[in-house]
Design the sequence.
């Protein structure tokens, strides 16, 4: 062991190069794991922010992928569908919604936000109170009033300390009177801001904003959590009938449920983990090959030392051990520095708000195991080469 | 049985297809306590013979037994143990570990003992004191003169108390004064009862021994016993400074 350290100290350049190889491998492994964990957490966070209890699910217009769809808004989910769903015996609350990303403007300030057309039961379904003013009322719905309830973020960005109540904000081309402010939920750790939203009456959204009556989604709350799957079956049958789908046609809508989201997350996680595995294997392999090459060079450079040790009683075993020890020490050292560097980079990415990252114990355990393995695996060949030189040859 | 017993030792090297015989059948026996010098022209096979004596290489054919043990049948581990316990090497080119202190260099053979002695450091210090280097314990080879380095290698050869000292031209890289100092150390070792086998080109160095073996073309040309020069007038060129 002591000999190993000495050998490493004497061959500083080689040691530095080998350490660098491992540092890069382990650092990228660490960053990759951190990004993986961070993304997972951010997705989970986002889901938590969809505000599903065990008794709620949503039906979205259009079939296909759950999230991150690019296709334009599908036009097949209607208010009629929402009313029919509300008539199902197991259903307690139904909230039909329209949605659009817009620029909100007040005086000289403007901010990008999500505008939702919703019905008054939204508040009960989300259990989200107003901090100031009042929520949308049935009267607002009937009159198609141009009124808006602001989330905390647009309220702050647009009004900057002034009381927003009663003021007029412009959403796209239409002016709305602010009647209420939602309680602030706070930005999640992953950077998702649930407060960045503005609510307007669904009727107003249909006639004055989107100029069409198709819905983005319908949120459904059942009477009892046990009835969720039954309700989903009923809703499926109902929508297929309403949309005149033949028994061969696929659904033109999709459900978003807590379980569905979990499945989706797990699928994403699996795909991501596979990619992570590939990338880190490659980077560690590169690090290992660097170690092996430099160790082989170092064996050649240190032939004399090996010969001297052999003369005074070092067996092949002793020489093998010495070189193995060196490569393990180097890779462990590189592993420690690598985790440190990776940790720094991950923290930086998070701090700069580029990529969500999350550091747990895994990178530390992984790098410990992997760097030891690399040291052994790629050290064995040079070590054996060193040991099988005969002392006679080495001292010529 | 003699300490070193060699019979018809042949050593040949294969180089791309054709074989050269370097030792062509050497039979020597050396008793414990003898002081033997091996001389002969360059390329005669002196170093090759010494490598075989020191269990650094195996003969192509022939019988070699050392201290009653047959060497041919031994595995690497057993050979390493013999080198560790019974033989101490001294080389012309010193062969010290670079960048390592004299103390650690001298201690190195002890690290390969089957059980590392607890008093390794003390023993190394004592060995260095014995060769007159008590004041150079923490110098690296680069910080020492040739004579000092060669004395470190002698301390290293002695550390594990071996029966046999094998020295390949120990004075070859030294000036006459340093060479004389080294020869004095060897004379003292013989008086302690160690066996010394010394390769040299210098007839004056060979005079220190009591037996001279002359090699030529891989064969023993001459093997004679002779008088040892008096220790107090020993020296390569005139009396050694005292
Ligand atoms: N590994 C080897 N492969 C091929 N030839 C070798 C090998 N080792 C030694 N020889 C040859 O064997 C011969 C004897 O070499 P050796 O080193 O024993 O000579 P020497 O008597 O010690 O000479 P010197 O006095 O110059 O040291 C030389 O011709 C050398 O070229
Ligand atoms: Mg020679």
Sequence:
């Amino acid at each position: 062991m002591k000999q190993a350290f000495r050998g490493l100290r004497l061959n500083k350049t080689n040691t530095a190069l080998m350490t660098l190889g491992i540092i890069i491998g382990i650092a990228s492994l660490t960053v990759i794991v951190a990004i993986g964990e961070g993304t997972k957490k951010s997705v989970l966070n986002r889901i938590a922010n969809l505000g599903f209890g065990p008794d709620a699910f949503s039906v979205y217009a259009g079939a296909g992928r759950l999230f991150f769809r690019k296709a334009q808004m599908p036009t097949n989910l209607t208010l009629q569908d929402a009313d029919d769903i509300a008539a199902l015996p197991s259903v307690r609350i139904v909230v039909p919604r329209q949605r659009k990303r817009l620029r909100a403007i007040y005086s000289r300030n403007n901010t990008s936000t999500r505008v939702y057309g919703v019905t008054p039961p939204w508040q009960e379904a989300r259990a989200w109170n107003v901090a100031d003013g009042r929520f949308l009322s049935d009267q607002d719905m009937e009159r198609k009033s141009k009124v808006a309830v602001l989330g905390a973020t647009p309220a702050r960005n647009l009004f900057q300390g002034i009381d927003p109540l009663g003021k007029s904000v412009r959403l796209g081309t239409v002016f709305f009177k602010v009647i209420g402010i939602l309680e602030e939920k706070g930005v999640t750790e992953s950077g998702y801001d649930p407060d960045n939203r503005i609510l307007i009456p669904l009727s107003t959204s249909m006639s004055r904003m989107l100029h069409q009556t198709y819905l983005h989604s319908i949120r459904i709350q059942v009477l009892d959590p046990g009835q969720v799957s039954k309700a989903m079956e009923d809703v499926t049958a109902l929508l297929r009938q309403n949309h005149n789908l033949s028994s061969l046609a696929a659904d033109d809508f999709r459900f978003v449920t807590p379980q569905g989201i979990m499945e989706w997350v797990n699928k994403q996680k699996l795909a991501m983990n596979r990619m992570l595995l590939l990338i880190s294997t490659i980077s560690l392999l590169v690090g290992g090959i660097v170690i092996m090459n430099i160790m082989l060079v170092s064996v050649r450079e240190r032939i004399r030392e090996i010969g001297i040790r052999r003369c005074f009683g070092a067996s092949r075993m002793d020489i093998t051990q010495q070189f193995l020890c060196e490569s393990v020490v180097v890779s462990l050292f590189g592993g420690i520095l690598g985790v440190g560097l990776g940790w720094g980079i991950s923290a930086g990415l998070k701090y700069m708000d580029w990529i969500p990252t999350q550091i747990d114990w895994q990178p530390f355990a992984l790098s410990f195991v992997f760097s030891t393995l690399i040291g052994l695996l790629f050290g064995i060949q040079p070590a054996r080469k060193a040991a099988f030189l005969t002392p006679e040859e080495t001292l010529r | 049985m003699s300490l070193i017993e060699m019979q018809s030792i042949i050593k040949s090297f294969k180089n791309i297809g054709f074989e050269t015989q370097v030792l062509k059948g050497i039979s020597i026996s050396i008793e414990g306590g003898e002081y033997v010098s091996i001389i002969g022209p360059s390329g005669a096979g002196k170093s090759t013979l010494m490598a075989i004596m020191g269990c650094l290489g195996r003969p192509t054919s022939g019988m070699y037994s050392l201290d009653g043990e047959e060497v041919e049948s031994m595995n690497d581990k057993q050979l390493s143990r013999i080198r560790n316990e019974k033989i101490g090497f001294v080389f012309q080119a010193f062969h010290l570990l670079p960048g390592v202190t004299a103390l650690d260099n001298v201690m190195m053979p002890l690290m390969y003992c089957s059980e590392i002695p607890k008093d390794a450091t003390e023993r190394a210090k004592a060995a260095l004191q014995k060769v007159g280097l008590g004041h150079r314990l923490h110098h690296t080879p680069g910080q020492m003169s040739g004579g000092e380095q060669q004395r470190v290698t002698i301390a290293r050869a002695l550390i594990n108390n071996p029966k046999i000292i094998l020295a390949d031209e120990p004075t070859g890289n030294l000036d006459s004064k340093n060479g004389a100092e080294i020869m004095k150390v060897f004379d003292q070792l013989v008086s302690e009862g160690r066996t010394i086998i010394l390769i040299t080109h210098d007839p004056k160095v060979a005079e220190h021994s009591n037996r001279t073996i002359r090699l030529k073309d891989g064969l023993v040309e001459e093997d004679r016993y002779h008088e040892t020069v008096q220790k107090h007038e020993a020296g390569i060129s005139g009396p050694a400074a005292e």
Observations:
- The radius of gyration of chain B is 18 Å.
- Chain B is about 30% helix and 25% strand.
- The longest helix of chain B spans residues 176-191.
- Residues B 13, 15, 20, 22, 42-48 surround adenosine-5'-triphosphate (ligand 1) (CB under 6 Å).
